[in-house]
Amino acid sequence: MISDRRAALRRVEAALGGHPSVGAAVAAYEGERTVVAYVQGATPVTKADLRLAEAAREIAAKAVREPGETGSSGPVGRYALAVAAAAVADFARRRGRAGALRVLEARAGEGEVTAVLVPALSAYEAEYLCTEATESCLAVLRRRFAGRPGVGFGLLDVEEDVRGQGYAPHSHHLVVVSGPDRCSGPVLARLRELVAPGGWLVSVATSADGRGRAEWLERAAGAGFAPLLSLPDEGDPVAGLGAHVFVGRSPVRPNARHLIEYAARRLPPELVPASIHVVDRVEGREENGGGPDAGQG
Questions:
Q1: Which residues, other chains included, contact 14 with Cβ-Cβ below 8 Å and sequence gap of 6+?
Q2: What is the CATH number of the domain that holds 196?
Q3: N or C: which terminus of the chain carries fewer CB neighbours within 10 A?
Q4: Do 245 and 104 share a structural domain?
Q5: With contact defined as beta carbons under 8 Å apart, do 245 and 202 qualify?
Q6: What phi and psi values does residue 75 have, to the nearest 5 degrees?
Q7: Which structural domain, as residue segments, surrounds residue 129?
């Protein structure tokens, strides 16, 4: 009966959804008896994430009160850059000695953000790639940061397909972008392609961008980033000045083989999925028990 099949699929989905790497799961029948499943990665918030948020608020408050040599004039710039520097250093510290940290900065402009983040990573093995859309803009960055250890330069137009420009998907642990007012949903989706599973997007606005915090969070979530940090908080006096730092995590990527083994320990043999497909987004299952509307990863 259809109701029995639906109940069986819900049981499969519940079992897979219990795995910590799975954010959502949809199961379907292929033919009469074969079960397949589609899963998207989870974006868990950890205790370390909560500590980062608490520390970032303290750093931000201090940056506003005390002038510093951040390369940006005024308290708004100091606020945003201090928080961004703390975030990238925290990410590097968590990784420990897991190989070189690969950082890509999109729309690096004249290097205002670069000048703060590169020193923040000086204690770690890092490869920092500054990118801009044109050779003339890239030349400005080369002149400013030539000879800096670990700093490289590349052309990248985030308004176009990143793979077609020679960038491998999920190839960077951290992706940094300035001027979030220019980050439409499609641009954020392209940046998401560059972020490794579990990696972070760090967005920095050092001046008013005309966008509300809620709008930015909605666009970032729509691109698949789970918010770890979004400052200033609602009601903070600095919020009216336009400073904004957003840190979002890209979902981890579940291991299909491990998930099948996990399901086999929790389900009867006839319900263990014959295959599990890891996708970027799971929308839901059709009422007739057919396949999901899933965005392939």
A1: none
A2: 3.40.50.150
A3: N
A4: yes
A5: yes
A6: -65, -30
A7: 47-249
Same domain, 287 and 235: no
29 forms beta bridges with 35
| Residue given tokens 């506003």 in the structure block | 64
| Residues 130/145, Cβ–Cβ less than 8 Å | yes
The number of domains in the chain is 2
162 & 202 share domain:
yes
Cβ pair 205, 181 in contact under 8 A: yes
102 & 191 share domain:
yes
Residue whose pair of structure tokens reads 């439409």 in the numeric block: 184
Helices (H), 121-163: 135-145
Each residue's pLDDT tens digit, 142-193: 999 998 999 999 999 999 999 999 999 899 999 999 876 667 889 999 999 9
Residues 185 and 220 in one domain: yes
| Residues ≥6 apart with Cβ < 8 Å to 2 | 288, 289
Using a 10 angstrom Cβ sphere, with 0-12 exposed, 13-18 middle and 19 or more buried, the burial of residue 12 is: buried
On whether both 184 and 224 belong to a single domain, the answer is yes
pLDDT in tens, 50-97: 777 777 777 766 765 565 544 455 666 777 888 899 999 999 988 887
